Amino acid sequence: MLGNIYLTGFMGSGKTTVGKILAKKLRREFIDMDAILEKRIGMKIVKYFAEYGEKEFRVKESELLEEIAADKLKIVSTGGGIIESVNNRKVMKKSGTTVYLQTTLDDCAKRLKKGGAKSRPLWQDRGKTESLFIKRVPLYKQAQIIADTGKKSAEEVAGNLLHRLYPDDNFTVTMDGIECPVVCSFVALEAICSAVVGRKRAIITDRKVAKYHLPRYLGRMDDAMVIKLSGGEKIKSLRTAEKVYTKLLDNHYNRDDLLIAVGGGTVTDLGAYIASTYKRGMPFILASTTLLGSVDAAVGGKAAVNFGKAKNIIGTFTIPELVVLDVNSFTTLAREQISEGLVEAYKTGLIGATSLGRLIEQEYESMLKGDLPLLKAVAAESAKFKAGVVTGDFREGGRRAILNFGHTYGHAVEGYHDYKVSHGQAVALGMVVATVLSKRRKFISADECRDIIKTIINICPEMPGLVPVDEAMAIMAHDKKVRDNKIVFVLIEKYGKPVIVNDLTKKELVGALKECEKYFK
C-alpha cells in the first residue's frame, strides 16, 4: 500500500501508457525512468549507448532506481532491461510491488513500428532482439503480479491491474442476527448490479452526486426511477421524506421493490430512513460516495432525520441488503471533504483501531491530496472496526456508544449553527473538546493531548467557533444519547481505549472550552 508500483516489461509493452493511466486513477505521481535518464545524461538513450556503452547506462539506471526506492507512493515505468540486475530486482521488491506487463514480441513490434524502434538501442537487429526477449522473460516473470496485456487497450489493462493491486475488502456486519455484506471496492457497482437483477428499483441521490456519478450507475441500471434531492444536511427532514414517499407512491413502488441510496451520509441516512418506514419497510442498498459517509453513516443500521436543532432525533434501526463503499467516487472529493472523512476515521483510531490512527498520523498529507489506495484503506479499516462494534451492540445498549467520541459536543455545534456548518468540522471541534476533557481528568498526558489535537487540526484546519456553554448544554440535553437526564460523553483513557462518562458538569465544560481556545489562536 505504501510502496511504489514498478511496471516492468519488454520495450513496447506499454509501461509508460499504462503507468500514466494508473497514476491518474490512483492520484499518484508517475515516473518515467527513461525520460528522467535522458534528461540527466543530456541525450537520447540510443546515442548514449553508442558513445558510452550499455554498461555505463545501467550504472546510472540503478542509481536512479535507488533514489526512487527511497520514496513511496509512486507509479514507475522502468526500462526494459532493469530486471537483468539481481540487485535492481531486490530493490524493487523491497520498496514496492513489481508488475510485469506480459506481451508477445510481435505485439511489442507493432507498438513500436511507427518509428519508435529507432530510438531503442537494443531493437536494431531482429535476431538479437528475439534472443534478448527470450532471455528476459523468465526475469520479468519473477514479478509479484503478471498482467497479460493481450489484445486489451491500455485503459483495460490499467483497470484490471488496479483491481488486482487493490482487491475488494469484503466483510459483514451482523444486526439482530441478520448479516449485511459490506464491500469496499474500486468496482463497487459490480456488487450492486449482481444484487438488483430483475427487480424494480428506485435510486435516491442528490444533484451533485448525480452530476458526477449517476451516469455510471444508470449505465448499468437505466430502467431505475431517479429521485434527485438538493443535498446538504437540510434534506434530512420529515418534509423531504414526505416528498420521496409521494414519489414512490405515485410510481407504484411496493414493499418488495428496492430503494438504492447513492451519495454521502445525508443521502444514505435519509434513504435508509425512508426505506425502513415506507409501507412498514422496503429492501434497500446503500452506496456511499464520500469518505465521511463510508467511515461513518453507511455502516451500522441507523437511519434518521433531524428535527429542529436536534440531530438524528427521529429514526429507526434498520438493516440494508448491501452496503458498498464506492472508492472510485472519492476522485471527485474536494480536499475539505476528504478532511471531514479523515477526522471521523481518526476518531475510530483513537477509540480502538490504533493502527489506523497511526497510519493517519503518518500519511494524512498524502490522504488529503487524494491518494486513493490510502483512502480505500481508511474507508475499509474504519468500516470494519465499526462493523465489529455494531455486531456486538446493534441497538446501542452499551459499547456502541464509544463511536460517539467527539459527537456529543459536535452535534451541539451543528445544532447551534442550524446545520450550516459541516458535520466533519463540527465533529473535529468536538474531538478537540473531548481530548481536552480527557487530559483534564488525567486520563491522558498533556503531551498526548497536544499531539492528538495537533493531528486533528492538521487534518481539519477549518473549524467553527466554540459554542457557549449554556447553549451547548441546552442542545446536548436533547441529545438521543441522554440517559436518566444525564449527558453522556465519550472520552479516552489512553490512545485506543475509550471511556464513557455521564457525570460531566457545567463547570468542567467551561474549563475545557477555555483551555481549547489556546489551540485556535
Number of helices: 21
Major β-sheet strand ordering = 6-7-14-11-10-8-9
Number of domains: 3
Structural class assignment? alpha/beta
* Number of E strands: 16
Unreliable stretches, pLDDT < 50, 5 or more residues? none
CATH architecture of the largest domain: 3-Layer(aba) Sandwich
Our estimate of the beta-strand percent is 15-25%
Structural commentary:
The protein is an alpha/beta fold. 49% of the residues lie in helices and 17% in strands. The chain folds into 3 domains: 4-165, Rossmann fold (3-Layer(aba) Sandwich), CATH 3.40.50; 169-387, Rossmann fold (3-Layer(aba) Sandwich); 405-520, Dehydroquinate synthase-like - alpha domain (Dehydroquinate synthase-like, alpha domain, Up-down Bundle). It has a 7-stranded mixed beta sheet with strand order 6-7-14-11-10-8-9, sandwiched between helices. A 5-stranded parallel beta sheet has the order 2-3-1-4-5. The protein has a two-stranded antiparallel sheet with strand order 12-13. The longest helix has 21 residues, at 372-392. The model has no long low-confidence stretch (mean pLDDT 92).
